[in-house]
Task: structure prediction
Amino acid sequence: MAKKTVKKKPAAKKKPKKDAPEKKRRFRPFRWVMKWAFRAGLVFAALTFLAVVFYAFVNPPTTPYIWSEARRLDGVDRMWVPIEEIAPVMARSVVAAEDANFCNHWGFDMAAIRAAIDSGGNRGASTISQQVVKNVYLWQGRSWTRKALEAVMTPLVEAVWSKRRILEVYLNVAEFDEGVFGVEAAARHYFGVGPEDLTPTQAARLAAVLPNPKGRSASKPTAFIRKRTRAIISGAATIRADGRSACFEG
Result:
């Protein structure tokens, strides 16, 4: 018997797959904001670090506050002087007046902060390091934004600058009278001497006008300034005797 041939059905042609339509990316505002905020934060951190490193070696030519006062008063009296040309008693006096634990903290005096809180905020707790950050990099006045920036930058300055450098910058940017900035201008303005020739009493008088230089005078002291001067002279001698001036003494 002849074999029957079975015809195979041709395989069904596969339909070509249609390209899947591209999914449209959804715009997510929160993710976009967070991405750019992160990038902006990195740029700000890098610029802040460079600014701190730069002034560790270069003397600030001015500050935001000095610049604004120079515009308001049509000029200010200021000349930079290295700390080696400032009487050591002047450095000890401002530390005794403004930040007695300057050598023992990392930018914030926690004991002073707790004391300020306990007193209801009626006393200041800003360290010299915080004041340098505010004066050199930021602006005057009370605001949470400035305080937050100050809190971030102060430990960075403490990590990069030496204590001696922090105090040197402070002595050259602090205001001692209206339009009178820095200890060199202040010594000549009040006493007619250079900062290297300041006596303990004169140095204490200059420190006593801080932090209210527009309302106090080192050359015409009130009873309050005289009393404060005596306390500063005693405090400056004490921090020298107990070693709390060791971090900035040459």
About this structure: The radius of gyration is 32 Å.
